[in-house]
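Problem: given the chain below (350 residues), write out its structure.
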Amino acid sequence: MLRAGLRLDRADGYQSGVREYPTAIVENVDNLLECRLSNAELACGNIRTGRTNTYASLTACLEEPAVPNRVYKSRIVRRSFGTFAFQGGSSSTHFSYDSQGRLLRRARCSGSDCSSLNKVNDVLDYTAWDPFGRPTRGIYAPAREVESIEVSVAYDDERRTLSASNGEMVEQDRRGNVVREVSVFGVARPAQQVVTYETTTTASACPDAEVMGPLSLPMPPAPPTGPSLAGEYLLAVEASPRCRDRLPRAAQVRSYDATVTQRWEWFEILIHNVRAFGSGGFGGGKVAGSTLTLHLAFYDGNYEVSLTGQGDVRPGQFSVLAAGVVNFAEAGRATVECEASDHRLLLQSK
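Solution.
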């Protein structure tokens, strides 16, 4: 439930119910992400990384900037299709609230959900709040450590910052969009992760000024014309002909089951039958008409690929000519690596 509660006096041009959300951001200086706001989701991504903020309602999304660093999200899902196979995967943060809209719990998990206990990495249960409904104290408990600690949280509303006693920090701009975020994982040997965001372009979402009824917002750009990519596929990874003298036969052509999901022009690939940690291999890309850009990085036991390229979309299939590396490690021998610009990826609809 969303409760307005107390509001801060704002002298920076903020209007209640109007949100200036990013349409493009630069993450960590050089990673450009395109963003879309649709209903209660703000999704940003490119062919390598993605982040989706989900809210209980569009109202919650629009009201989030009203009080700096008051959270209204229900979930954040992060996906990465890294340069190297071991960097791929997904993680998520889930938020729970009481009947007054105060944040009760933050749970960080491996994968896009917390459906099982072995996916939960840590939990922060809040026990006290300020007059604006923001948590000021809680108990932080990593899932794989015995020790838990009390965490206190302070807010500087002039600078729009949140500072926690365990080293975590969030800084926002006047629009309520995150500028810098410091996350801390663990108690005994805490690990710190710092991410910066620069919003380069924005759009506004607000209630219809004349009707003053249901909330409305600018429609996201229409997806490109052309066939939908979503579905079940057979993925074939064919090493460059120039690699055939170097790679053993087992590494020259490999086949996998794959699921493709699509949102607007962005798509993701989940590769199922691989011998790797987690739920499988990952890839992603962007489609524009009958042309697509794809990045794929995964490992399958002693076989590893990291490929990026462009290709054509046809009914029931798409093929990509890709540059990158195919590695294969035979038992008792050194790893064989073949880097080329004409590896081929073919996805055939089942």
